[in-house]
Amino acid sequence: MALGFRLTPVQGETGLVRPQVRTRISAYAIAMDDDRLLLARLSDASPVFTPGLWHLPGGGIDPGEQPVEALTRELLEETGLELVGARLLDARTYSAQRNGISWSLTALFYAASLKGGAPTVTEVDGSTETAAWVPLRDIRDTAVLSPPAADAAHMLDRSWKRIQGR
Predict the structure, then answer these.
(1) Per-state percent for the chain, helix, strand, coil, to nearest 5
(2) What's the confidence (pLDDT) of residue 135?
(3) Three-state SS at 151
(4) Model pTM?
(5) pLDDT of residue 19
(6) Are 142 and 53 in contact, with CB atoms under 8 Å apart?
(7) pLDDT block averages, 10 residues each, the chain of length 166
(8) CA 154 to CA 160: how far, in whole Å?
(9) Which of the residues 64, 129, 142, 144 could staple to 150 if both were Cys, CB 3.0 to 4.6 A apart?
(10) What is the 3-state secondary structure (H, E, C) of 2-62?
(11) Checking DSSP bridges between strand 21-30 and strand 101-114, what pairing results, if any?
């Protein structure tokens, strides 16, 4: 998916040229099936986070698009699964560097209910290599997760502990 903007040098106060920071607002799904979390592994086409990391399905909100519309679109592209309900849980910000570009990302996290099925990537040449329902016990090592996915894992862990009264 083309992002529709370019990196433009900006003249700084010191006279040095510094790269412009790109801003992106994204909507992400936290979707559970029993003790499994829906995750998407990033491909080489990932614009913000490192390829190979497991990431939450979702992505950038296009101009004029509502966040839940973006979430619906991204879920279909990255997992082939249909969104049937979404509730905003949290918003977080991230800074990232990839391919010489500085990113300022605002992530909207949604508790997502999906129509059942096996995840299948439908977008060609997109940022998702594969999608899967991953058991929570398999993602204890957050080094394999993108920063938003790691935050989601921590949110789920805290919620689970509250439910169990710990």
Answers:
(1) 25, 40, 35
(2) 94
(3) helix
(4) 0.84
(5) 65
(6) no
(7) 45 61 96 95 94 97 98 97 97 94 96 94 94 92 94 83 49
(8) 10
(9) 142
(10) CCCCCCCEEECCCCCEEECEEEEEEEEEECEECCEEEEEEECCCCCCCCCCCEECCEEECC
(11) parallel
| pLDDT for the residue 13 | 56
Distance CA 57, CA 40 (A): 6
β-bridge pairing 36-42 and 54-55: antiparallel
Beta bridge partners, 41, equal: 54, 130
Compute the distance between CA of residue 135 and CA of residue 100 in angstroms, rounded to an integer. 34
Phi-psi group of 148: left, alpha or beta (phi > 0 → left; psi -120 to 50 → alpha; rest → beta): alpha
Under 8 Å between Cβ of 20 and 5: no
